[in-house]
Amino acid sequence: MAGLRRIALNILTLLKQYFWPKLSIRRLRKMVARNPAQLEPIMAL
């Protein structure tokens, strides 16, 4: 489980760098947890 969590955090870190540079990782995790559909257009790239 720790490995999956690490992978998810790495993906969020990469997305943060390119799409939401001003958000903290904590805030980004909460934002995605509330509305996972926000990641669909980005993950399609």
Relative helix content: 55-70%
Tally of strands: 0
* Shape assignment: globular
* SS element count, helices: 3
Order of helices and strands: HHH
Strand proportion: under 5%
Spans where pLDDT lies below 50 across 5 or more residues: none
| Radius of gyration of CA atoms, rounded to a whole number | 10 Å
Which structural class do the helices and strands define? mainly alpha
Distance from first to last alpha carbon: 26 Å
- The average pLDDT score comes to 87
User: Could you describe the largest sheet, including whether it forms a barrel?
Assistant: none
What attributes does this structure have?
69% helix, 45 residues, mainly alpha, globular
Description:
Helix content is 69%, strand content 0%. The protein is built from three helices and no strands. The chain has helices at 2-18, 25-34, 40-43. The longest helix is centred in the N-terminal third of the chain and has 17 residues, at 2-18. The model has no long low-confidence stretch (mean pLDDT 87).
Quick synopsis:
This protein is mainly α and 45 residues long. The chain has 3 helices and no strands.
How are the elements arranged and paired?
Blueprint lengths: L1 H17 L6 H10 L5 H4 L2
